[in-house]
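Something for you to look into today, if you have time. Just paste the record in under my message, thanks.
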Amino acid sequence: LVISGTAVAGAALASLGKPFVAWLATDLEGDRCDRVRTFPWYRRALDRSLNIHVLRAQERKVLNSAHVLALSSHTERELDRIAGNKAVRAVLPAPVDTKVFKPDPAQTQPARIGFSGRLDDPRKNVGLLLDAMVEIAASRPEAELHLIGHRPDTPLEAWIAARGLTSRVQLQPYVQPEELPGILAKLDIFVVPSHQEGLCIAALEAMACGVPVISTRCGGPEDFVQDGHNGWLVDSNASAMANAIHRVIDDRDRRQQMGAAARSTIETNYSLTRAETVLNGAINQILPPQFRSLCA
C-alpha cells in the first residue's frame, strides 16, 4: 500500500512486479509546477534535461501497474489522462473524523477568515488571499485573517507588511492535531486561494466544523464546494474572492445555513466508514482469494 502525494513514491513497488494499491493525491505536474519556478537556473536546467523525464516515466509505470485510488475527481481525470487509459479504479477522498472536527457556534467569530496549510508552498498562492484581504479591510474594520502553518524565514511577513496588513493578519505555526479543531471552529469563513489542490483536506476539516468554504477553481475543492450552498467557487482574482467573502460576512442568516450545509456535506460524503469500505475493497482486489476475508 502506497499513500502519497504523487505516483512516484510507488516506483520501487512497480519495479518489483508485485500487486499494490496506490492512493494518490495529485498528478506529478500539478504537484511540481509552481515549485519548479522557484528553483535556481542550474536546477531548472537539470530538471528540464533529465529529472522530469525520469519522474514522468516512473509516474506512468506506477499508474499502469497499481490498483490506483485518487483523492478527488480532479486527480482521477489527470491521472487517467497521463496513463492514457482508465488507470484510477475509485475515488477515495481523505475522510474526516466528525467526532473530533465539529461545530461550536458559541465560539464562531464573525469576520474571522482563515486558511491552513503549507503557507510557503507556491501552489497555495497565499498572496491572492492577502490581496483580497486588502479589499476586505477597506470596508470591514473588524475583519481579520488567520493563517495557520507559518514557518519563520519565509517572505510571508514581508508580503503582509507591504500590503499594510500587519495588524489584520495573525500568523500561527503548525499546531498540534488536537488544537486544530478548536481553531477552525472559531472561523467565520475558510478560504482556499490555491493554484492547484489534489483535494484540500484542511477545507474538509473546516467544513466539518460548520465553516463555509470559499475556494478558487483549483481542482479538488470543486468536488465538495457547492456555490451558494456550502460555500462559493471563485476565479483566481482578488476582487472575486473579496466579493464572495463579503457575501458571507454580510448575510448572517445565509452564513449559518451555509455552515450547516458544510457540516452535512462532510457527514454524508467524507465519513471514516465510507473510506474504510473503499480502501478495504481495493486491498481485497489485489489479495489472493484465500486472504480476502482479512479485509472484509
